[in-house]
Every structure is written in C-alpha cells, then in structure tokens.
C-alpha cells in the first residue's frame, strides 16, 4: 500500500549564526544575547542530528543556509554602502538591524511552513503555506527564500503557497504551532484522514510578559486555504502563563506523533475541550488518542522550558510495525524530572528508545531537535521521487562537513563582519553548499 510517511526537512545552520537576542518571548535567546557563537560547531551539531534521523529510518531533506547578511533587507531599510563599510556603519548606528539581517534563524525549519496532506484536504492535494514570521524583526525576511527552497525540494504536485499577508492580525509561525493527529501507521497502510490542532497565542486571556506570536486569524485562513474539514479542525489557545514562562511556540510545551499527544497541563487555557478532540479522533480514525498530560508536580513549567523536553523529535521508520524513537536535547539528562518522564514513557512502551543529542548552539538560541525540522507528510511514491541531491547521504554529509570545517568561522560575533576575509569565507561557504545541494533540475547546463 502507498502509505503516508513523514519526511524530515532540516536546514544547514548558516556561517553567521550568532546570538542576537531578538526572539520575542524566547528566554534562551535573551539569556545568551551578545555572547560569542560557534557557527562551525552549530552546523556540525545539526548535521549530526540529521545523520541520526536517517539512521533511525527517516528520509531527510537538507536545505542550504539562507544567504546572510541579507543586503536586500538592509537596502530596503535605507542602508546603501559598500561592504564592509556598510557593516561598520550599522555596528555604530543600528547594530540590531545588522543582527536581524545576519540571523541564521531560518535553521529552525519548524517555523518554515504549515503542511496538510492530501488526505486531510477537500481539494485532495497536499497544501503548504509558507509562514510569514512577521512577529519578529529578524525572521520576517525568511519567507521569500523558504518559498523557493520548498518549491524546489518538495514534490511537484504539492500546492506550495506564498505567506499570508503581512499584518499583525495574521502573524504566522508555522508548524511549530500545528499538530496533526492520525492513526498509527500500522493501523492504516493507505493515507487516511487525521485531525488538525492549531495553537494560537491571542484570545480572551492575554500574556502579561510577552506578546503572542501566532494568531487565531492566521490559522483559520490557513485551514481555509488547505481545504481542511471543519469537523476535523480544532483551535486551541496557548495558556498565557505558558507564553510568559518562555513557551513562545506550542512545541515548547507539547509534542505529537501519529496518535500520540503529550503536553504540559499548563499548555492550553482551562476551557480547552479535550473530550471533543478525543471524540472526533475516534470518529475519524476508529482509534483512540494516546493523550498524556504532564502535571506541574511531575515537571514544573520552568523546567519544561529549560530542558525543552517537549521539543524532542519523534521518529518512526518506514516499517509500519517499526518502533517510535525519541530524540531529546542533552539538557534532559541533567533534569531528574524530565529524564524520569522519558524513562517512564519507554517503560510504558510509548517509545522504543531515546537518543540524547548535543545541540548546544541551537539550544542557546532557543531551538531544540523539533525546532530544527519541518515534518512533511507524503506518500512513499512521492518520497521515492524526491531529488536525491537534496537528500542526506553519507557522501553528501562528508562534503558538507568538509565545506563547514574549511570555511565556517570557528567563533563569530557581529563585529567580525568588518573583516573582508571573514565576509569572503562566509560567501564561499554559502555558495559551495548551495552548489552541492542544488536540485538536478536547477543545475546549470
């Protein structure tokens, strides 16, 4: 049968990866603002996670870093000078704008788009809406390149749409706030309908410390675009206390995979109707949701945010009877509460094993394993037709490592952009990775 699988889409961390402290409501980002970053280590850590995902049975798409600093963005803001004089001027007059233009935040592909498979859509076609990310100064520039990247890497029959209009009421941060629940792969070999949970931050109750970055209006528009069935679509308001505690996206306090939904008890407002969601899931799939609510006594909300337990990545292999693997950030190991929950879930058979990954550079910017990947459901036939040049393989991995080790700066801070040799190395690294990962259909004659 041509079953539905999840392909993982990760992006190589860029050579200007740095800690700008620009993430709204992102405690890790604020904590590490201005510290020296290590782009080479960051890129290699991301590659190691991709290698592990493939080892565990995933199909892995690899995207190149977006070009940074973004000179077009700076030009639109009125900065027209030669490089590196331009960067010296920005460091003096508007360092936050240079930081925004140099951000490598596109590495967190969970914010790249929202994806709905054809089986969930009245249009019988997989739909992808690129996130506008207009809540953040440094991320609003990502969508143009993301649209091009996903159009070139995903199946041609997918409907890949431009971002929603750039308006405060339509702020959209993509799949980090979306969960699709469906029957386990061993239950249905053919693609079958699931239910969609969209998590927004705005609503009758408002955070007091941080403004929400995802709106209900945006997700309602995306659901209409994608042709989702109203009866299978639910909108949950993230609890203001969770946002104020540093859960700036749903995937900091919840995770899901197939029929499994794990969330902190403080993830959503009290009026959330779990019974209605569970009842509809039974009607749609013929099975039950495995919903686990983690209490404050089991794992304090602050500890959930510190460890990013809920930002773990869940994977199953292409084998319909294969186990579910859990990829956790290494910070979970140091937390008795978080590691205890993981051990219990394995003992209960929820996951077959756990793999702890070191993502120190991404975590310092506020991104765990799940932040670094976009899940794209597609059929096996669609996956087999993906361009091999953009898929992770050992030869591609080695070539990427060679480029990173040769051209990426070992350490980086914004003032380094005044060095013409540094700028040249950044340009070479980005160009060589782009050439390596360029789809065959786009290769020069």
From TrEMBL:
InterPro entries the UniProt entry points to: AstB_sf, SuccinylArg_d-Hdrlase_AstB
Q: Which UniProt keywords apply?
A: Arginine metabolism, Hydrolase
Protein's name according to its UniProt entry: N-succinylarginine dihydrolase
MF annotations from Gene Ontology: N-succinylarginine dihydrolase activity
User: Sorted alphabetically, which Pfam families does this protein's record hold?
Assistant: AstB
Q: Whose protein is this, by species?
A: Rubripirellula amarantea
Per the UniProt record, the lineage of the source organism begins with: Bacteria, Pseudomonadati, Planctomycetota, Planctomycetia, Pirellulales
Which Gene Ontology terms describe the biological processes this protein takes part in? arginine metabolic process
From the UniProt record, report the name of the gene that encodes this protein: astB
Q: EC number(s) on record? A: 3.5.3.23
């Amino acid at each position: 049968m041509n079953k539905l699988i999840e392909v993982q889409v990760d992006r190589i961390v860029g050579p200007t990866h740095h800690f700008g402290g620009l993430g709204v409501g992102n405690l890790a980002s604020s904590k590490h603002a201005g510290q020296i970053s290590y782009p080479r280590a960051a890129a290699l850590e991301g590659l190691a996670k991709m290698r592990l995902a493939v080892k565990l049975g995933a199909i892995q798409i690899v995207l190149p870093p977006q070009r940074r600093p973004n000179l077009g963005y700076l030009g639109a803001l009125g900065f027209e000078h030669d490089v590196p004089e331009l960067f010296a001027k920005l460091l003096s007059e508007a360092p936050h704008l240079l930081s925004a233009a140099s951000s490598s935040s596109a590495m967190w592909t969970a914010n790249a788009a929202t994806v709905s498979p054809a089986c969930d859509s009245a249009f019988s076609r997989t739909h992808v809406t690129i996130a506008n990310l207009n809540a953040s100064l440094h991320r609003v520039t990502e969508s143009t390149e993301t649209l091009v990247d996903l159009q070139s890497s995903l199946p041609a029959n997918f409907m890949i749409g431009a971002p929603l209009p750039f308006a405060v009421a339509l702020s959209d941060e993509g799949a980090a706030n979306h969960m699709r629940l469906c029957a386990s792969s061993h239950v249905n070999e053919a693609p079958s309908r699931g239910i969609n949970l969209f998590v927004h931050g705005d609503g009758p109750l408002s955070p007091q410390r941080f403004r929400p970055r995802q709106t209900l209006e945006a997700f309602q528009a995306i659901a209409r675009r994608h042709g989702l069935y109203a009866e299978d679509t639910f909108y949950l308001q993230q609890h203001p206390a969770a946002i104020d505690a540093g859960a700036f996206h749903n995937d900091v306090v919840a995770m899901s995979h197939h029929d499994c939904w794990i969330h902190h008890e403080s993830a959503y407002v009290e009026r959330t109707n779990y019974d209605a969601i569970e009842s509809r899931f039974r009607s749609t799939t013929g099975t039950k949701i495995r919903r686990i609510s983690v209490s404050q006594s089991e794992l304090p909300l602050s500890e959930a945010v510190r460890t990013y337990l809920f930002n773990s990545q869940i994977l199953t292999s292409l084998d319909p009877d294969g186990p579910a693997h859990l990829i956790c950030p290494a910070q979970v190991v140091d937390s008795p509460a978080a590691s205890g929950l993981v051990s219990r879930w394995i003992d209960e058979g929820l996951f077959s094993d756990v793999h702890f990954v070191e993502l120190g550079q991404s975590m310092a910017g506020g991104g765990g394993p799940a932040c670094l990947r976009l899940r794209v459901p597609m059929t096996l036939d669609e996956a087999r037709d993906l361009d091999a040049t953009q898929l992770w393989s050992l030869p591609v991995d080695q070539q990427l490592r060679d480029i990173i080790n040769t051209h990426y700066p070992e350490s980086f801070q914004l003032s380094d952009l005044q060095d013409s040799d540094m700028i040249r190395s950044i340009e070479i690294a980005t160009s060589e990775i782009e050439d390596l990962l360029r789809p065959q259909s786009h290769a020069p004659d």
